[in-house]
């Protein structure tokens, strides 16, 4: 029921999208990563009450990935930014 | 005989008579009536039995707030249970019946519950049916019979439903005085406006009042606004439409009752239409609901909301009784009393909790000779199926004993609750308003404005003004500026909306005074609240569930605030400190049909995907199976043949002559770009950059945790171009997976992926005669030397430009032919004709499964379960040791994936070769231990193999690779199957046929 | 053997041509299948001019818009992805021409992957709204606009061809039957008519020398309305 602001297509119904979960997870270098680091990368995700940076994919639209910053309490979308960009400071 | 109907007054058409039945009794009403107003006009108050105690119940309200008068409408598959009589429009031929009674409404056996009511307090079921655990199945039968209200129809629903999306700048919920003004303001600004109102005609409270606006009767004024709104192209006025849910980002759901008010078969239009509305700004002009008072006996038929009696009088010309006593704590009931008196009801007494009520309305009531009893309350109600009188006592404890008044109608008013349901659903917090003694919307959580009575603003002029402002502001917020429409000149309503209310929640009473209900629909009394408090269910959310206050279709409309207030007083706290429960969708019940829309039609429930050869499969008796959304032939039984026999025949044919399979559903992805080879090296566990143009390679894909998730053959089309195939079910998942890595991680790679799954029709031709057949249709040299295993080439096949792949999933010499999809059927037919002399046999997915299982080829998703690595499958050969990185590489060296006791793929041969072990069966050690039997794995694939002459199975078994030759047991429902672990290949282990 | 050569659209089995004599003037929804339209996807960082030179149609830069020219429509599908739709049998010439003009660009013939359902009629907006979450109101959409979304439960590419309004729905071949039935069912209470289906063209290899000259004119028979000019309307959606 959410309206997701695709940076290319504008506001679209969330049913057109797939949520890719927490953003900015860094894939460690497989040559040097410890078992614990690799497990952390694979399995551990934040589940905050409040501001959350997340990845979305416009699966039934332009098929682009992008980032949004969303407040998980009231679903307010605080920022939309490119998939290659880091989280905006202002949006927490 | 509508003996309780006045000859004038109201907005009904007395010139026409509508005939309807209630519990089989033929009655009549007029166009404009609801079922409730028609029943009351016929003098019928008793309309149902209560939920738990089966007490007689009558009509309480005049609209959506009605907690009691829930009836069953229609017959057969069109039956609708729990319809509110007060919102059901009357039509000729309407069939209604009462619920929750047996054998009849007047004599109901279930009413014995009422006698035994001391035994079934709140939480009765939780406490009683707990022990012993085994008795649950016994209890359940009784609980099921007692549970729920109404009866669902058993036949299929013959009606058509529809749902649709809609978008607007401003959505106005409610077309009462505030809503109409808001709509007018927003519409005039040029904004796109949707107005939704639950009633058949706009007007809301105006329809039940005697006022004039700008000189026009209040009951007619809405028509002029309607005409104005309907003249504007970007305004949609929806009547008979209830907004039932308010979701994220101003997404609201409404149900329009399109033809519910018409006799069956009169219209081809859908019965109901579900609106899914995205609004940039929402004006909530949902009005207010009068609050009942809680006093002993307040559930007897004849006890009604004062405003309802007024509405029945003014809108429908119906007298709800002959002699009325009014019980109130505020001024609004005085207006109701005056209108009731004007309608011909003898209002004898107004019982007012307040010590010294005063003001114009009080004086007017007094001047009509109505008795006033200030500082008093109703202490009890007499009567069995209808009110016969009330006992009134002073709130001053020292005053003399109760006074008895004869009456057949009690009009009660405990104040007004703004209809805050939608605001609360949207996340807007509610604030306590002390002067109104109720909750009003606090700061809006989203782009939303509450207006009129919904915002706690009472008084007609104030509501009209509030609506105009809200509409103007809403439009402005969406970029449309306009001036607020003028507030019409109002005559007749001189109140300023002040209720001068003094909260009155309940009065401690002894059980012998009778039950005092704060929730009529769920039969919850003040005693239940006290019990919940004693048992420490004091959090509002716990309290609600323990006592069931506000549940069912009521959703707190009449019960909410009273329940909370009584809880607060018993807890000795202020109401805001106790708080309120969160309102949730739906505001009123929604039929399942409306939610399903046209998808109730079986063909439309989910897309059915068909291959280009589908019609051939149908004509040739294919027995289909669903693979994802695809319909794939499972097998093609001939006349007199069972499904199993067909599978055996097809499986055998592919190894003895020629089998032909429709493989069009396999995913196909065109991968291009300068870095395509490098990309595939990272995606697959094995190497693809070394693949030569003109050749194919089988590849395995892992997630980054090292677990297998898809597989398939990829061909190198050109230096920088590949064609990847995926499993049927994995096609879109894999494409999305590739895009994800390209866009989010490896943004430096220049690679483009395009789905061509449905562009190509694919036909697998397998078997010893396959080369001979395909060679007849193409000039290409298909000899083993010129066109070896795992080669591909462009070719004209039967004159169609396509591709031939020398690949095989059956283990036979095989070719996969790709042609543009629209020629797929032509090629298929051509092959069938040309192959006739070889005994060509079309085979389905099951034969394909048997063939590949004979060879021990896995199916990702069947022989893997998301915790299976390539090593577990015995496919270490496909995991590159040369590559520096690929998805899953690091995951494969995690301690968990290196465990030696992992489940590994093995073959299983049952001792009895005729036994096919069920897939999914557990594998346990031999000899079978006493229960609990240790589970060491499970059977993933299992078939009768005609080529091996016995049953075969694949299984994932703990440490399986080291246990070849070991005996195991498969415990089944009706005995134990003994089996031996073997290598997972049963046929042509060397692969001579494949390469030949 | 002649029937084996029949090129079959995914809706052939519905026998649509048998229905196309229905009265369309009273229908609220008029549907037709446009068979075998040539479809080519183009991916990469592509200078728009190069495509205009190669095919005679420019690539739209504005998201979700369409450029038309030389009987071709170029639909924006993504920031580096376009779908070029042309008359039946043009796909080979189009892919050949593009591959030559744009080396290193991904050019994929996807002609066979989808078919096209053309819809029009007084209630077309209402009926599309029954299954498509897009806002197709003239203030938010319009001629020359396109979008990828869903209709019913099928993914679609929607192209508003003109202001009548007329919409071309490009749907996956395998789901065409479902979507056709879905549209017919949705429109049934209001009246649906089927229009003549374009006759399946003969399979022939187009002469390469004809390009980049004009493509054979494509006059879709159902509406007899020409494809709109190449102008892309400015977005009139108030930014929210």
Question: How would you describe what is shown here?
Answer:
The complex is a heterotrimer of chains A (92), B (996) and C (240). Chain A contains one helix and six strands. Chain A is mostly beta strands. In chain A, the strands form two sheets. A four-stranded antiparallel sheet of chain A has the order 3-4-5-6, with no helix packed on it. Chain A starts with a strand and ends in a 10-residue tail after the last strand. In chain A, 25% of the residues are buried. Chain C is α+β, with helices and mostly antiparallel strands. Chain C has helices at 48-55, 91-101, 124-129, 176-187; strands at 29-34, 38-43, 66-69, 72-78, 81-86, 106-109, 114-120, 146-151, 154-162, 166-172, 192-194. Chain C has a single domain (7-199), classed as Gyrase A, domain 2 (2-Layer Sandwich). The chains are: A mainly beta (92), B alpha+beta (996), C alpha+beta (240). The A-B interface holds A 1-3, 13, 18, 20, 27, 30-31, 33, 35, 38-39, 41-42, 55, 57, 59, 63-65, 74-75, 83-84 and B 247-251, 278, 427, 445-446, 704-705, 736, 739-740, 743-745, 747, 884-885, 889-891, 894-895.
Write the layout of secondary structure elements.
The complex is a heterotrimer of chains A (92), B (996) and C (240).
Chain A (H helix, E strand, L loop, with lengths): L2 E4 L3 E4 L4 E5 L12 H9 L7 E7 L7 E7 L5 E6 L10
Chain B lengths: L17 E5 L2 E5 L5 H7 L4 E4 L6 E3 L11 E4 L6 E5 L9 E4 L14 H4 L8 H5 L7 H11 L14 E13 L3 H12 L4 E4 L15 E2 L2 E2 L3 H10 L4 E4 L2 E7 L3 E7 L14 E13 L3 E3 L12 E3 H11 L6 E6 L3 H12 L2 E7 L7 H8 L3 E4 L1 E7 L6 E6 L8 E4 L2 E5 L2 E3 L2 H5 L4 E4 L4 E4 L6 E3 L9 H18 L12 E2 L25 E3 L4 E2 H9 L5 H8 L12 H12 L3 H4 L13 H5 L17 H6 L3 E5 L2 E6 L7 H14 L2 E4 L4 E6 L3 H8 L12 E7 L5 E11 L2 E6 L4 H14 L7 E4 L4 E7 L3 H8 L14 E6 L2 E6 L8 E7 L3 H12 L5 E2 L2 H11 L39 H4 L4 E8 L11 E4 L11 E9 L4 E9 L8 E6 L2 E8 L9 H4 L1
Parallel strand pairs in B: 1-7, 8-9, 8-15, 9-12, 15-28, 17-24, 18-19, 18-24, 19-20, 34-44
Antiparallel strand pairs in B: 1-2, 3-4, 5-6, 5-7, 10-11, 10-29, 13-14, 14-15, 16-25, 21-22, 22-23, 26-27, 30-31, 32-33, 34-40, 35-38, 35-39, 36-37, 37-38, 40-43, 41-42, 42-43, 45-48, 45-50, 46-47, 46-49, 47-48, 49-50
Helix pairs in contact in B: 5-6, 5-11, 7-8, 8-9, 12-14, 18-23
Chain C lengths: L28 E6 L3 E6 L4 H8 L10 E4 L2 E7 L2 E6 L4 H11 L4 E4 L4 E7 L3 H6 L16 E6 L2 E9 L3 E7 L3 H12 L4 E3 L46
Parallel strand pairs in C: 1-11
Antiparallel strand pairs in C: 1-7, 2-5, 2-6, 3-4, 4-5, 7-10, 8-9, 9-10
């Amino acid at each position: 029921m959410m309206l997701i602001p695709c940076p290319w297509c504008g506001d679209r119904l969330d049913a057109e999208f797939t949520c890719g979960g927490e953003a900015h997870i860094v894939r460690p270098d497989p040559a040097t990563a410890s078992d614990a680091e690799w497990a952390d990368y694979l399995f551990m995700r934040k589940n905050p009450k409040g501001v959350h940076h997340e990845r979305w994919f416009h699966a039934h639209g332009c098929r682009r990935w992008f980032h949004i910053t969303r407040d998980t309490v009231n679903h307010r979308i605080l920022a939309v930014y490119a998939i290659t960009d880091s989280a905006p400071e202002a949006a927490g | 005989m509508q003996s309780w109907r006045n000859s004038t007054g109201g907005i009904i058409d007395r010139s026409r008579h509508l005939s309807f039945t209630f519990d089989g009794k033929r009655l009549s009403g007029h166009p404009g009536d609801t079922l409730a107003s028609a029943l009351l006009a016929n003098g019928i108050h008793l309309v149902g039995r209560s939920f738990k105690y089966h007490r007689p119940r009558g009509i309480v309200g005049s609209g959506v707030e009605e907690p009691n008068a829930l009836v069953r409408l229609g017959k057969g598959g069109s039956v609708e249970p729990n319809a509110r009589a007060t919102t059901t429009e009357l039509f000729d031929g309407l069939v209604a019946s009462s619920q929750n009674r047996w054998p009849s409404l007047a004599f109901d056996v279930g009413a014995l519950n009422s006698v035994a009511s001391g035994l079934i307090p709140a939480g009765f079921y939780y406490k009683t049916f707990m022990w012993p655990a085994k008795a649950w199945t016994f209890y359940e039968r009784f609980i099921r019979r007692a549970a729920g209200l109404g009866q669902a129809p058993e036949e299929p629903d013959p009606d058509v439903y529809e749902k649709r999306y809609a978008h607007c700048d401003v959505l106005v919920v409610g077309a009462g005085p505030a809503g109409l003004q808001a709509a007018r303001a927003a519409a005039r600004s040029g904004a796109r406006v949707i107005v939704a109102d639950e009633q058949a005609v706009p007007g809301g409270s105006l329809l039940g009042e005697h006022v004039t606006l700008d000189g026009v009767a209040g009951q007619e004024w809405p028509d002029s606004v309607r005409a104005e709104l309907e003249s504007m192209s970007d305004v949609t006025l929806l009547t008979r439409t209830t907004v039932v849910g308010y979701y994220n980002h101003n997404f609201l759901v409404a149900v329009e009752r399109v033809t519910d008010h018409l006799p069956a078969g009169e219209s081809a239009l859908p019965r109901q239409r579900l609106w899914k509305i995205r609004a940039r700004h929402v004006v909530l002009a949902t009005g207010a609901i009068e609050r009942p008072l809680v006093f002993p006996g307040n559930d007897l038929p004849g006890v009604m909301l004062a405003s309802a009696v007024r509405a029945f009088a003014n809108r429908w010309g119906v007298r709800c009784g002959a002699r009325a006593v009014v019980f109130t704590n505020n001024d609004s009931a005085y207006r109701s009393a005056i209108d009731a008196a004007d309608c011909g009801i003898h209002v004898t007494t107004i019982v007012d909790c307040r010590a010294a009520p005063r003001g114009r309305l009080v004086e007017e009531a007094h001047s009509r000779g109505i008795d006033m009893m200030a500082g008093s309350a109703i202490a009890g109600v007499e009567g069995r199926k209808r009110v016969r009188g009330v006992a009134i006592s002073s709130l001053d404890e020292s005053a003399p004993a109760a006074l008895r008044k004869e009456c057949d109608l009690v009009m009660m008013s405990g104040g007004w609750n703004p209809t805050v349901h939608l605001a609360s659903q949207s996340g807007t917090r509610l604030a306590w308003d002390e002067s109104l003694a109720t909750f009003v919307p606090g700061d809006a959580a989203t782009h939303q404005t509450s207006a009129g009575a919904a915002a706690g603003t009472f008084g007609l002029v104030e509501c009209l003004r509030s609506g105009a402002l809200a509409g103007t502001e809403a439009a402005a917020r969406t970029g449309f500026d306009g001036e607020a429409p003028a507030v019409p000149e109002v005559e007749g309503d001189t109140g300023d909306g002040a209720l001068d209310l003094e909260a009155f929640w309940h009065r401690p009473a002894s059980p012998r005074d009778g039950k005092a209900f704060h929730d009529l629909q769920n039969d919850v009394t003040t005693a239940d609240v006290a019990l919940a408090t004693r048992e420490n269910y004091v959090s509002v959310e716990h309290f609600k569930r323990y006592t069931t206050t506000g549940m069912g279709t009521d959703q707190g409309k009449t019960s909410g605030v009273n329940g909370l207030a009584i809880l607060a007083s018993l807890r000795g706290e202020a109401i805001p400190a106790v708080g309120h429960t969160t309102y949730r969708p739906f505001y009123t019940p929604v039929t399942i049909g409306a939610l399903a829309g046209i998808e109730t039609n079986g063909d439309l429930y989910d897309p059915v995907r068909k291959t280009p050869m589908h019609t051939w499969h149908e004509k040739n008796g294919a027995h289909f199976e669903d693979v994802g959304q695809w319909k794939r032939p499972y097998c093609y039984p001939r006349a007199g043949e069972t499904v199993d026999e067909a599978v055996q025949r097809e499986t055998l044919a592919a190894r003895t002559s020629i089998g032909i399979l429709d493989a069009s559903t396999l995913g196909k992805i065109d991968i291009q770009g300068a870095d395509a080879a490098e990309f595939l090296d990272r995606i697959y566990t094995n190497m693809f950059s070394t693949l030569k143009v003109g050749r194919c390679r089988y590849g395995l894909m892992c997630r980054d945790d090292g677990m297998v998730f898809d597989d398939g053959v990829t061909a190198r089309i050109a230096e920088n171009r590949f064609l990847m195939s995926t499993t049927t079910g994995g096609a879109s998942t894999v494409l999305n997976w590739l895009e994800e890595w390209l866009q989010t991680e490896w943004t430096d790679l220049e690679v483009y992926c395009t789905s061509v799954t449905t562009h190509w029709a694919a036909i697998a031709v397998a078997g010893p005669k396959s080369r001979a057949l395909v060679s007849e249709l193409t000039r290409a040299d298909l000899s083993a030397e010129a066109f070896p295993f795992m080669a591909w080439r462009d070719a004209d096949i039967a004159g169609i430009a396509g591709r031939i792949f020398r690949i095989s999933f059956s283990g036979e010499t095989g070719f996969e032919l790709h042609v543009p999809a629209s020629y797929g059927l032509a090629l298929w037919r051509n092959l069938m004709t040309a192959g006739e002399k070889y005994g060509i046999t079309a085979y389905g997915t099951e034969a394909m499964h048997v063939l590949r299982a004979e060879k021990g080829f896995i199916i990702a998703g069947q022989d893997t379960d998301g915790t299976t690595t390539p090593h577990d499958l015995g496919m270490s050969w496909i995991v590159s040791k040369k590559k520096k990185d690929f998805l899953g590489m690091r995951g494969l060296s995690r301690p968990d994936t290196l465990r030696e006791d992992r489940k590994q793929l093995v073959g299983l041969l049952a001792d009895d070769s005729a036994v096919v072990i069920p897939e999914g069966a557990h594998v346990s050690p031999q000899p079978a231990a006493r229960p609990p039997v240790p589970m060491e794995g499970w059977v993933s694939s299992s078939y009768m193999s005609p080529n091996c002459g016995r049953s075969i199975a694949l299984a994932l078994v703990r440490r399986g690779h080291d246990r070849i030759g070991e005996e195991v047991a498969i415990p089944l429902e009706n005995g134990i199957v003994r089996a031996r672990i073997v290598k997972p290949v049963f046929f042509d282990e060397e692969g001579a046929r494949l390469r030949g | 053997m002649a029937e084996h050569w029949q090129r079959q659209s995914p809706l052939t089995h519905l026998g649509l041509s048998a229905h196309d004599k229905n009265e369309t003037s009273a229908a609220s929804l008029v549907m037709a299948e446009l068979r075998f339209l040539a479809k080519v996807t183009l991916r990469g960082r592509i200078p728009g001019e190069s495509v205009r030179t190669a095919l005679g149609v420019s690539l739209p830069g504005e998201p979700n818009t369409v450029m038309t020219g030389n009987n071709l429509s170029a639909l924006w599908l993504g920031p580096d992805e376009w779908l070029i739709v042309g008359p039946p049998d043009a796909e080979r010439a189009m892919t050949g021409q593009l591959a030559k003009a744009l080396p290193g660009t991904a050019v994929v013939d996807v002609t066979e992957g989808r078919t096209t359902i053309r819809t029009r009629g007084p209630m077309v907006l209402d009926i599309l709204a029954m299954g498509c979450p897009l806002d197709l109101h003239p203030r938010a959409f319009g001629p020359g606009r396109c979008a990828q979304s869903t209709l019913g439960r099928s993914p679609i590419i929607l192209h508003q061809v003109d202001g009548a309004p007329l919409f071309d729905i490009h749907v996956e071949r395998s789901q065409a039957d479902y979507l056709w039935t879905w549209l017919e069912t949705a429109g049934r209470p209001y009246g649906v008519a089927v229009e003549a289906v374009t006759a399946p063209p003969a399979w022939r290899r187009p002469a390469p020398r004809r390009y980049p000259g004009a493509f054979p004119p494509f006059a879709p028979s159902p509406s007899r309305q020409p494809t709109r000019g190449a102008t892309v309307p400015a977005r009139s959606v108030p930014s929210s």
